[in-house]
Amino acid sequence: MAEKRNKQLDVDKRYLRMAAIWAENSYCIRRKVGSLIVKDLRIISDGYNGTPSGFENICEDENNKTKPYVLHAEANAITKVAASSNSSKGATIYITSSPCIECAKLIIQAGIVRVVYSEKYHTDEGCELLKRAGIVVDFVEINNTHQE
Ligand SMILES: [Zn+2]
Fold first, then answer.
1. CA of 56 to the centre of ligand 1 (A)
2. 74 flagged as catalytic
3. How far is the CA of 111 from the centre of ligand 1 (A)?
4. Is pTM, for the whole model, over 0.90?
5. pLDDT tens readout for residues 17-63
6. pLDDT tens across 107-123, in order?
7. Cα–Cα distances in Å, from 54 out to 51, 58, 88, 116, 136?
């Protein structure tokens, strides 16, 4: 049992590291967030924070404030599944940062059953909402300098 749990933890850390690498795609300067949606050990979607398709790849306005139409990494990953033939029902979402309340709503509606994140965002209202919806929420720290 303990071994199984350790294996799951290893898998979780790997996906979180991949999500962290994926976050590097983000054009956003203030914050780069990456997300992966995994089902049956298969990545069915990915996302990073950024502007919607067709908009210029600049996330911040002249006052260095994030533009209101920037989509969060998890929102991008979820909407990408919606536009594909896959279903996020029963999937796990890996995010480099804990979800905000807006993304938590999308995660619930997408039928995602587990959320794993590696960095705490300044508010935990998103995680609280997820837990109220019966979604498993796991915080897993990844140490990039450490070889797993
Ligand atoms: Zn969000």
1. 20
2. yes
3. 17
4. yes
5. 999 999 999 999 999 999 999 999 999 999 999 999 999 999 999 99
6. 999 999 999 999 998 78
7. 8, 12, 25, 30, 35
